[in-house]
Target: Hydroxymethylglutaryl-CoA lyase
Amino acid sequence: MTNIDIEISEVGPRDGLQSIKTIMSTEDKKAWIAAEAAAGVPEIEVGSFVPPSVIPQLADTAEVVAYARTIPGLAVAALVPNLRGAENAIAAGAHKISIPLSVSETHSLKNVKRSHVQMLEEIDLIVQRIRELPEGERPKFEVGLSTAFGCTIEGPVSEDLVVQLAVKAVALGVDEVGLSDTTGYGNPAQLKRLTKRIWENCGREKLNGVHLHNTRGQGLANALAAVDIGLTTIDSSLGGIGGCPFAPGASGNIVTEDLVFMLEAMGLKTGIDIEKLLAVRELVQKALPEEEMYGFTPEAGLPKGFVAATGS
Amino acid sequence: MTNIDIEISEVGPRDGLQSIKTIMSTEDKKAWIAAEAAAGVPEIEVGSFVPPSVIPQLADTAEVVAYARTIPGLAVAALVPNLRGAENAIAAGAHKISIPLSVSETHSLKNVKRSHVQMLEEIDLIVQRIRELPEGERPKFEVGLSTAFGCTIEGPVSEDLVVQLAVKAVALGVDEVGLSDTTGYGNPAQLKRLTKRIWENCGREKLNGVHLHNTRGQGLANALAAVDIGLTTIDSSLGGIGGCPFAPGASGNIVTEDLVFMLEAMGLKTGIDIEKLLAVRELVQKALPEEEMYGFTPEAGLPKGFVAATGS
Model:
């Protein structure tokens, strides 16, 4: 990961695929992951350890993690809802485990059927479980502060509560917390404000990344705010796959291709070969012929004479 | 214009309508302009004084300018390609006249059939013409530095040349220059760099606005960079009308609704009532049933419990 300014964490195989009807075959997932890794994407969230009855699209996550582990240099991340999921993720060999802690307790109860207290207990158990592992085998453990920018059920969430939950998670021993704009409610000023407050209360090294949605078209502006303030990891999804809760052009996750174009155009190295990244799209579209893919840069093409910050 | 942090200049009736096939009726244009003004939009570019044979969609610009002038508080802007257009704009009563000076000379020759030297001569003549008017009747005269971020024909343009042309225009006596990302090539770092250099060489008061395109999805990120550095006027188009050179979701101009949402969410007053602005969309869609309208916020709706910076 040397010589990278901003680390892109591709979440399409998890956040993207869980939101669409089509179930991608395990072979297609492997091909997608391999192709993005070959384009230079440093981290990929490849699945979620949830019961197949809940998210059948990700039933093969253990196999996908095991495969992704064989790709040299790739950081393999997986989402887990609870201790059981974490144990499965550890068994499969994930390098990084993320758990959602929704700032909106209403959302938390709907999403993972647990209150804040119950989630913090679960997080505590996972921290203990990871500490039992030999030092070299411990995955990185991150708490994603979901609905940190607002909730579709509760409306605005308290910024104090965002900070309090971050402090509690860090006190339990998690490696990092992340800010998640689950609902696409976030704005650049809010992102900078929340980041500063968490840094002040938890230590700067405890918050490095954001997970943004483009529901109201604010995704790249929020990503720019993140980069401006000094965050270094940004989640995104190839082709914005998975998130089309609304009409044409709307998308859920921010589009990896547009994000990488922005950063590379600004002179920020992602380590990603954007031409190769754009080529991965065809492979994924072939595997998901029924699904729409989003993104402006892929349609418009790179500017004439474009020079990326990351050399080929 | 007191109590406004960022001034939105709506360019849909000009830049939007000139790019689509449908010719909007004069009555529909008037209704659109009246409705946006009533929503609080402070400035609208209502047309372009070009020969009807070139852009038949804007053949009624003189009538539209005259009508828009009757709306209290609204700044009425019009584009002109040359002295003749400026004379027509002055006769019609435009408050603001803009002329494109394309940094890519190749583009200038294609777009307005004039070299840099010829365009600067034309600009000089317009400045003289305006000075002949009584002081209270002089329109504001702005030079839009088109293709300032790159050209689809020439590729990258020299930043030195952008600055040189800005200096020459200001030396001729224009009120302001504006940065135009005609091709959607721009990135936030470039925008800040160009702005600083023009400020250093022309004086800060000579550059206040940007005209951005969303061709590669960078529109709002670039608008955020503009606001961050201290620019105060941003062009945008309701529904992103007019610019769909590429596939679904792509758009030309940045979408007024998404831009206003970003600014208001950040606590920056635009003076615009966003609910009223969103309602204007229906009126325009009815008048342009064949044309696609873009924008994420209109589709997703405002966040639950959203509080805008501009009070109703």
Confidence is low (pLDDT under 50) at residues 244-250 of chain A. Residues 65 and 272 of chain A are 21 Å apart (CA to CA).
